[in-house]
Write a structure and sequence with these properties.
The protein is mainly α and 329 residues long. The protein has a domain at 98-228: Hypothetical protein, domain 2 (Endonuclease III, domain 1, Orthogonal Bundle). It contains 17 helices and two strands. The chain has helices at 2-36, 50-54, 80-90, 97-101, 115-129, 134-146, 156-161, 164-170, 177-194, 203-207, 214-225, 235-244, 253-261, 269-285, 287-296, 300-309, 314-321, and strands at 62-63, 227-228. Helix 5 (115-129) packs antiparallel against helix 11 and helix 8 packs across helix 9 (177-194). The longest helix is centred in the N-terminal third of the chain and has 35 residues, at 2-36.
Length: 329
Protein backbone atom coordinates (compact mmCIF):
# COMPACT_ATOMS: atom_id res chain seq x y z
CA UNK A 1 0.00 0.00 0.00
CA UNK A 2 2.79 2.49 0.91
CA UNK A 3 4.72 1.66 -2.23
CA UNK A 4 1.63 2.11 -4.40
CA UNK A 5 0.83 5.46 -2.79
CA UNK A 6 4.40 6.70 -3.24
CA UNK A 7 4.46 5.56 -6.83
CA UNK A 8 1.19 7.40 -7.50
CA UNK A 9 2.57 10.61 -6.03
CA UNK A 10 5.65 10.28 -8.21
CA UNK A 11 3.58 9.75 -11.32
CA UNK A 12 1.36 12.72 -10.45
CA UNK A 13 4.40 14.95 -10.02
CA UNK A 14 5.84 13.81 -13.34
CA UNK A 15 2.48 14.33 -15.03
CA UNK A 16 2.23 17.86 -13.66
CA UNK A 17 5.69 18.66 -14.96
CA UNK A 18 4.82 17.41 -18.43
CA UNK A 19 1.53 19.37 -18.48
CA UNK A 20 3.33 22.55 -17.38
CA UNK A 21 5.94 22.20 -20.10
CA UNK A 22 3.33 21.37 -22.72
CA UNK A 23 1.10 24.28 -21.68
CA UNK A 24 4.03 26.71 -21.89
CA UNK A 25 4.98 25.45 -25.33
CA UNK A 26 1.38 25.65 -26.53
CA UNK A 27 0.99 29.23 -25.30
CA UNK A 28 4.19 30.25 -27.10
CA UNK A 29 3.04 28.66 -30.35
CA UNK A 30 -0.39 30.26 -29.91
CA UNK A 31 1.09 33.73 -29.41
CA UNK A 32 3.31 33.30 -32.46
CA UNK A 33 0.39 32.09 -34.57
CA UNK A 34 -1.82 35.02 -33.55
CA UNK A 35 0.89 37.45 -34.60
CA UNK A 36 1.40 35.92 -38.04
CA UNK A 37 -2.04 34.71 -39.10
CA UNK A 38 -5.52 36.17 -39.18
CA UNK A 39 -8.64 34.39 -38.04
CA UNK A 40 -10.30 32.28 -40.72
CA UNK A 41 -13.73 32.77 -39.20
CA UNK A 42 -16.11 35.08 -41.03
CA UNK A 43 -18.04 37.32 -38.69
CA UNK A 44 -21.82 37.68 -39.22
CA UNK A 45 -23.39 41.10 -39.50
CA UNK A 46 -22.66 43.18 -36.45
CA UNK A 47 -25.77 43.81 -34.39
CA UNK A 48 -25.62 46.10 -31.39
CA UNK A 49 -27.17 45.02 -28.13
CA UNK A 50 -30.27 46.78 -26.80
CA UNK A 51 -28.19 48.59 -24.21
CA UNK A 52 -25.58 49.82 -26.69
CA UNK A 53 -28.15 50.81 -29.31
CA UNK A 54 -30.07 52.93 -26.84
CA UNK A 55 -27.11 55.07 -25.79
CA UNK A 56 -27.02 58.52 -27.32
CA UNK A 57 -23.50 57.99 -28.67
CA UNK A 58 -22.69 54.43 -29.80
CA UNK A 59 -19.52 53.11 -28.21
CA UNK A 60 -17.44 50.32 -29.69
CA UNK A 61 -17.51 47.21 -27.51
CA UNK A 62 -14.20 46.51 -25.79
CA UNK A 63 -13.40 42.81 -26.19
CA UNK A 64 -10.86 41.26 -23.85
CA UNK A 65 -7.77 39.82 -25.51
CA UNK A 66 -7.34 36.05 -25.44
CA UNK A 67 -4.89 34.83 -22.82
CA UNK A 68 -4.61 31.30 -24.26
CA UNK A 69 -4.73 29.82 -27.77
CA UNK A 70 -8.34 29.16 -28.78
CA UNK A 71 -9.36 25.52 -28.91
CA UNK A 72 -11.01 24.13 -32.05
CA UNK A 73 -14.81 23.83 -32.04
CA UNK A 74 -16.14 20.46 -30.85
CA UNK A 75 -16.63 17.99 -33.70
CA UNK A 76 -20.27 17.60 -32.61
CA UNK A 77 -20.87 21.33 -33.24
CA UNK A 78 -20.80 20.76 -37.00
CA UNK A 79 -21.32 23.95 -39.02
CA UNK A 80 -21.69 26.04 -35.88
CA UNK A 81 -21.27 29.38 -37.66
CA UNK A 82 -24.23 28.67 -39.95
CA UNK A 83 -26.29 27.83 -36.87
CA UNK A 84 -25.18 30.98 -35.07
CA UNK A 85 -26.05 33.18 -38.05
CA UNK A 86 -29.42 31.44 -38.41
CA UNK A 87 -30.29 32.14 -34.77
CA UNK A 88 -29.24 35.77 -35.23
CA UNK A 89 -31.61 35.98 -38.19
CA UNK A 90 -34.46 34.43 -36.19
CA UNK A 91 -33.83 36.98 -33.43
CA UNK A 92 -33.55 40.01 -35.72
CA UNK A 93 -37.10 41.14 -34.84
CA UNK A 94 -36.20 41.47 -31.13
CA UNK A 95 -39.63 40.35 -29.86
CA UNK A 96 -38.63 38.03 -27.00
CA UNK A 97 -39.57 38.96 -23.41
CA UNK A 98 -35.96 39.90 -22.64
CA UNK A 99 -36.06 42.58 -25.34
CA UNK A 100 -38.93 44.45 -23.69
CA UNK A 101 -38.60 43.62 -20.01
CA UNK A 102 -35.05 42.30 -19.56
CA UNK A 103 -32.39 43.71 -17.30
CA UNK A 104 -30.69 45.41 -20.26
CA UNK A 105 -33.94 47.04 -21.41
CA UNK A 106 -35.44 48.50 -18.23
CA UNK A 107 -32.76 50.85 -16.82
CA UNK A 108 -33.32 54.56 -17.40
CA UNK A 109 -30.67 55.98 -19.70
CA UNK A 110 -28.93 59.26 -20.41
CA UNK A 111 -30.10 61.98 -20.76
CA UNK A 112 -32.99 60.96 -18.45
CA UNK A 113 -30.41 59.98 -15.82
CA UNK A 114 -26.65 60.40 -15.69
CA UNK A 115 -24.27 57.63 -16.76
CA UNK A 116 -23.44 56.67 -13.17
CA UNK A 117 -27.15 56.13 -12.37
CA UNK A 118 -27.67 54.16 -15.59
CA UNK A 119 -24.88 51.79 -14.57
CA UNK A 120 -26.30 51.43 -11.08
CA UNK A 121 -29.74 50.62 -12.48
CA UNK A 122 -28.19 47.96 -14.75
CA UNK A 123 -26.70 46.35 -11.67
CA UNK A 124 -29.94 46.50 -9.67
CA UNK A 125 -31.97 45.06 -12.56
CA UNK A 126 -29.61 42.11 -12.78
CA UNK A 127 -29.70 41.54 -9.03
CA UNK A 128 -33.50 41.40 -9.25
CA UNK A 129 -33.47 39.08 -12.26
CA UNK A 130 -32.27 35.93 -10.52
CA UNK A 131 -35.11 33.35 -10.30
CA UNK A 132 -37.54 36.00 -11.60
CA UNK A 133 -39.40 36.46 -14.89
CA UNK A 134 -38.44 39.51 -16.91
CA UNK A 135 -41.91 41.08 -16.63
CA UNK A 136 -41.68 41.03 -12.82
CA UNK A 137 -38.19 42.54 -12.92
CA UNK A 138 -39.56 45.34 -15.08
CA UNK A 139 -42.44 45.93 -12.65
CA UNK A 140 -40.08 46.17 -9.66
CA UNK A 141 -37.70 48.46 -11.53
CA UNK A 142 -40.53 50.81 -12.53
CA UNK A 143 -41.71 50.90 -8.93
CA UNK A 144 -38.26 51.91 -7.71
CA UNK A 145 -37.69 54.41 -10.50
CA UNK A 146 -40.97 56.24 -9.77
CA UNK A 147 -41.04 55.91 -5.98
CA UNK A 148 -41.26 59.10 -3.95
CA UNK A 149 -39.65 57.21 -1.06
CA UNK A 150 -36.31 57.10 -2.88
CA UNK A 151 -34.80 60.57 -2.93
CA UNK A 152 -33.79 61.20 -6.52
CA UNK A 153 -35.36 57.95 -7.71
CA UNK A 154 -33.49 54.71 -8.33
CA UNK A 155 -29.95 55.93 -7.76
CA UNK A 156 -27.12 55.21 -5.36
CA UNK A 157 -27.93 58.10 -3.02
CA UNK A 158 -31.66 57.33 -2.95
CA UNK A 159 -31.26 53.63 -2.14
CA UNK A 160 -28.46 54.29 0.34
CA UNK A 161 -30.66 56.73 2.28
CA UNK A 162 -33.74 54.47 2.27
CA UNK A 163 -34.31 51.80 4.89
CA UNK A 164 -34.43 48.13 3.97
CA UNK A 165 -38.18 47.86 4.57
CA UNK A 166 -38.76 50.44 1.85
CA UNK A 167 -36.67 48.47 -0.63
CA UNK A 168 -38.43 45.27 0.42
CA UNK A 169 -41.85 46.79 -0.28
CA UNK A 170 -40.85 48.19 -3.67
CA UNK A 171 -39.43 44.91 -5.02
CA UNK A 172 -42.04 42.61 -3.48
CA UNK A 173 -42.99 39.96 -6.01
CA UNK A 174 -39.54 39.20 -7.39
CA UNK A 175 -37.99 35.89 -6.43
CA UNK A 176 -36.42 35.88 -2.93
CA UNK A 177 -37.26 39.55 -2.41
CA UNK A 178 -36.38 39.44 1.29
CA UNK A 179 -32.85 38.34 0.53
CA UNK A 180 -32.52 40.67 -2.45
CA UNK A 181 -33.55 43.71 -0.40
CA UNK A 182 -30.69 42.91 1.95
CA UNK A 183 -28.26 42.37 -0.92
CA UNK A 184 -29.25 45.67 -2.56
CA UNK A 185 -28.75 47.65 0.65
CA UNK A 186 -25.39 46.04 1.40
CA UNK A 187 -24.19 46.37 -2.17
CA UNK A 188 -25.15 50.05 -2.27
CA UNK A 189 -23.30 50.67 0.99
CA UNK A 190 -20.15 49.10 -0.46
CA UNK A 191 -20.48 51.21 -3.62
CA UNK A 192 -20.70 54.36 -1.47
CA UNK A 193 -17.94 53.54 1.00
CA UNK A 194 -15.43 51.69 -1.19
CA UNK A 195 -16.06 52.93 -4.75
CA UNK A 196 -16.94 56.61 -4.33
CA UNK A 197 -20.53 56.01 -5.36
CA UNK A 198 -19.67 54.33 -8.66
CA UNK A 199 -20.46 50.78 -9.77
CA UNK A 200 -17.23 48.75 -9.98
CA UNK A 201 -15.98 48.32 -13.54
CA UNK A 202 -14.06 45.07 -13.05
CA UNK A 203 -15.03 41.44 -12.53
CA UNK A 204 -13.17 41.41 -9.23
CA UNK A 205 -14.99 44.48 -7.94
CA UNK A 206 -18.42 43.24 -9.02
CA UNK A 207 -17.95 39.73 -7.65
CA UNK A 208 -17.14 41.24 -4.25
CA UNK A 209 -20.68 42.67 -4.05
CA UNK A 210 -23.31 40.68 -2.10
CA UNK A 211 -25.60 38.66 -4.35
CA UNK A 212 -23.60 39.30 -7.52
CA UNK A 213 -22.23 36.29 -9.40
CA UNK A 214 -20.24 35.74 -12.61
CA UNK A 215 -23.26 35.84 -14.95
CA UNK A 216 -24.48 39.17 -13.54
CA UNK A 217 -20.98 40.64 -13.56
CA UNK A 218 -20.40 39.79 -17.22
CA UNK A 219 -23.68 41.41 -18.26
CA UNK A 220 -23.06 44.54 -16.15
CA UNK A 221 -19.65 45.00 -17.77
CA UNK A 222 -21.17 44.52 -21.22
CA UNK A 223 -24.36 46.58 -20.84
CA UNK A 224 -23.07 49.35 -18.58
CA UNK A 225 -19.39 49.66 -19.51
CA UNK A 226 -19.22 48.22 -23.06
CA UNK A 227 -16.62 45.70 -21.89
CA UNK A 228 -16.90 42.13 -23.10
CA UNK A 229 -14.81 39.78 -20.98
CA UNK A 230 -16.90 36.62 -21.27
CA UNK A 231 -20.12 34.97 -22.40
CA UNK A 232 -22.95 34.99 -19.88
CA UNK A 233 -24.81 31.66 -19.68
CA UNK A 234 -28.31 31.39 -18.21
CA UNK A 235 -30.43 28.27 -17.65
CA UNK A 236 -31.81 28.44 -21.22
CA UNK A 237 -28.34 28.34 -22.76
CA UNK A 238 -27.19 25.76 -20.22
CA UNK A 239 -29.81 23.40 -21.72
CA UNK A 240 -29.54 24.45 -25.38
CA UNK A 241 -25.79 24.35 -25.99
CA UNK A 242 -25.23 20.62 -25.22
CA UNK A 243 -28.08 19.72 -27.59
CA UNK A 244 -26.29 21.59 -30.36
CA UNK A 245 -23.03 19.81 -29.56
CA UNK A 246 -21.37 23.11 -28.69
CA UNK A 247 -20.61 21.98 -25.14
CA UNK A 248 -20.80 18.78 -23.16
CA UNK A 249 -23.49 18.35 -20.51
CA UNK A 250 -22.24 20.20 -17.42
CA UNK A 251 -23.37 20.49 -13.82
CA UNK A 252 -23.62 24.28 -13.82
CA UNK A 253 -23.99 27.23 -16.23
CA UNK A 254 -20.52 28.38 -15.15
CA UNK A 255 -19.00 25.12 -16.40
CA UNK A 256 -20.93 25.49 -19.65
CA UNK A 257 -19.61 29.03 -20.01
CA UNK A 258 -16.00 27.91 -19.68
CA UNK A 259 -16.48 25.20 -22.31
CA UNK A 260 -18.02 27.65 -24.78
CA UNK A 261 -15.45 30.39 -24.22
CA UNK A 262 -12.66 27.90 -24.88
CA UNK A 263 -13.48 27.79 -28.59
CA UNK A 264 -16.09 30.40 -29.58
CA UNK A 265 -14.30 33.27 -31.42
CA UNK A 266 -14.40 36.41 -29.34
CA UNK A 267 -15.96 38.57 -32.02
CA UNK A 268 -19.20 36.68 -31.34
CA UNK A 269 -19.18 37.25 -27.57
CA UNK A 270 -20.69 40.78 -27.23
CA UNK A 271 -24.14 39.99 -28.69
CA UNK A 272 -24.29 36.32 -27.78
CA UNK A 273 -26.15 36.58 -24.48
CA UNK A 274 -28.98 38.86 -25.56
CA UNK A 275 -29.60 37.00 -28.82
CA UNK A 276 -29.48 33.50 -27.39
CA UNK A 277 -31.32 34.21 -24.14
CA UNK A 278 -34.18 35.61 -26.22
CA UNK A 279 -34.01 32.58 -28.51
CA UNK A 280 -34.23 30.31 -25.45
CA UNK A 281 -37.26 32.22 -24.18
CA UNK A 282 -39.02 31.85 -27.52
CA UNK A 283 -38.24 28.14 -27.56
CA UNK A 284 -39.84 27.77 -24.15
CA UNK A 285 -42.68 30.32 -24.23
CA UNK A 286 -43.41 31.28 -27.86
CA UNK A 287 -43.00 28.16 -30.01
CA UNK A 288 -45.75 28.93 -32.61
CA UNK A 289 -44.29 32.39 -33.26
CA UNK A 290 -40.79 30.96 -33.53
CA UNK A 291 -41.96 28.30 -35.99
CA UNK A 292 -43.52 30.98 -38.21
CA UNK A 293 -40.21 32.86 -38.23
CA UNK A 294 -38.34 29.65 -39.05
CA UNK A 295 -40.60 28.97 -42.06
CA UNK A 296 -40.12 32.54 -43.32
CA UNK A 297 -36.34 32.78 -42.86
CA UNK A 298 -33.61 32.41 -45.49
CA UNK A 299 -33.13 28.68 -44.83
CA UNK A 300 -36.42 27.11 -43.63
CA UNK A 301 -35.28 23.44 -43.80
CA UNK A 302 -32.28 24.15 -41.61
CA UNK A 303 -34.35 26.30 -39.23
CA UNK A 304 -37.02 23.62 -38.80
CA UNK A 305 -34.34 20.99 -38.22
CA UNK A 306 -32.80 23.25 -35.57
CA UNK A 307 -36.13 23.56 -33.75
CA UNK A 308 -36.55 19.78 -33.79
CA UNK A 309 -33.02 19.33 -32.45
CA UNK A 310 -33.94 21.59 -29.56
CA UNK A 311 -37.07 19.61 -28.69
CA UNK A 312 -39.85 21.45 -30.52
CA UNK A 313 -42.75 19.28 -31.73
CA UNK A 314 -42.99 21.03 -35.10
CA UNK A 315 -46.26 19.41 -36.25
CA UNK A 316 -48.06 20.24 -33.01
CA UNK A 317 -46.85 23.83 -33.01
CA UNK A 318 -47.86 24.20 -36.66
CA UNK A 319 -51.42 23.23 -35.73
CA UNK A 320 -51.41 25.81 -32.93
CA UNK A 321 -50.08 28.49 -35.28
CA UNK A 322 -52.51 27.55 -38.04
CA UNK A 323 -49.79 27.10 -40.64
CA UNK A 324 -49.29 24.37 -43.22
CA UNK A 325 -45.90 22.69 -43.10
CA UNK A 326 -43.91 22.39 -46.35
CA UNK A 327 -43.05 18.98 -47.78
CA UNK A 328 -39.53 18.91 -46.33
CA UNK A 329 -40.81 18.92 -42.76
Amino acid sequence: MLLRSGTKRGLNAASRAVRTATSSSTRQRGRKKRKTTASATTSPRNRRSVATAALATPVKMEIAEATQPRAPPPAAAGDWLATLELVEELRADRTAPVDEFGSEAVPQRPPVVDLSTFRYQCLIALMLSSQTKDAMVSKAMRAMQSSSELAGGLCVAGVHAADQDTIHTLIQGVGFWNRKADYIKRTTAIIVTEHAGEVPSTMKGLLALPGVGPKMSLIVLSAAFNKCVGVSIDTHLHRILPRLGWTKVAKSPEQTRRQLEAWLPREHWPTFNLIWVGFGQELQQQKPKLLKKALACSDPPRAVKLLRTLGVDVKREARKAGVELPYYT
